[in-house]
Amino acid sequence: MYKAALIAMLMGLSACATVPENSNVLKTQLDGPLAQLQLDTRQLQLRLDKLTEDKSCSHDNQCKVIPVGARPCGGPEVYMLYSTGQTDEKMLQYTAERYQQLKRKQNDKLGLVSTCQMLMAPMASCQQSQCVFDQGDVR
Question: Which keywords annotate this record (predicted)?
Fold first, then answer.
């Protein structure tokens, strides 16, 4: 069951980027360090989601975005929205930095490639007592 969950997790990651055909990475077999890297990355992703889940606010200045992850070509994968009134910003920053480091390692280890289009940081505001993105397709 443990291996099945890891394989499913890797399959989900492969939809976001592609592995070059000449890569030495075996797509059907996990090595120990790669499996651990995948688990560590997933745990940090879940922690980021938990840290930012309460987006309640009373003013626009409580709503912020943070760059998260690392695209193979550079820049963040997404921007996450959070409320400064509900989020431990130091813990969020630390977790986002650690997640970015692991995503870079993961990209390198898997030999992933992606588009080199950089994401612009979206604006956030407080609407109906909840932080929301003003525009863009972000997480």
Answer: Signal
Residue 39 to residues 9, 66, 73, 86, 104, Cα–Cα distance (Å): 9, 22, 23, 27, 15
Neighbours of 74 (CB within 10 A): 10
- Helix, strand or coil for residue 115? coil
Do the beta carbons of residue 23 and residue 17 sit within 8 Å?
no
- pTM for this predicted structure: 0.71
Question: Which DSSP category does 62 fall into?
Answer: G
Distances (CA, A) of 59 to 13, 54, 91, 134: 36, 15, 22, 14
Per-residue pLDDT reduced to its tens digit, 39-97 = 999 999 999 999 999 999 999 999 999 999 999 888 899 999 999 999 999 999 999 99
